[in-house]
Amino acid sequence: MTTPTDKTLPMPDPSERQVIQSYGEGGFRVSDTRHEGAILVTAARTTAWAGAAVAALDPASIPANIDVLVVGCGTRADFMPPATREAFKRRGVSLEVADTPAACRTYNILLSEGRRVAAALLPVP
Fold first, then answer.
1. Per residue in 63-98, pLDDT tens?
2. How far apart are CA 90 and CA 122, in angstroms?
3. Which helix (H) or strand (E) holds 108?
4. Which CATH superfamily is domain 7-121 in?
5. Would you kindly state where each structural domain of the chain is located, as residue ranges?
6. Measured between alpha carbons, how far is 46 from 39 in angstroms, rounded to an integer?
């Protein structure tokens, strides 16, 4: 059930993949499950993002089988240090950095296209 302040998103079938259905009030609804706080989402599963900080993203903490990592920085996009971008590039992972609402939409679109994508998302109020 969405609340009036949730921002509902169009999506593919949430029973087949981890689809971001809504965000807001400090959490997310992913494939019919509410998650509080920051999360990491892949097509297969959603987990809490421990130590959530955009500047401290570590390629070793992200699943190895992805091509794109979408980073949702909260209410506005944040600066990604060049060393972090380079570390992901060496692993063959492209970074897309945006505010969380745009990151949720981007993740769902890439997922629906069959891309190997993950999202690291900070919550928004």
1. 889 999 999 999 999 989 999 999 999 999 999 999
2. 24
3. helix 100-112
4. MTH938-like (3.40.1230.10)
5. 7-121
6. 7
pTM: 0.86
- The 3-class SS string of the chain reads CCCCCCEECCCCCCCCCCCEEEEECCEEEECCEEEECCEEEECCCEEECCCCCHHHCCHHHCCCCCCEEEEECCCCCCCCCHHHHHHHHHCCCEEEEECHHHHHHHHHHHHHCCCCEEEEECCCC
* Residue for token pair 């990151």: 103
Residue type, 36: E
Which residue matches tokens 């809490």?
48
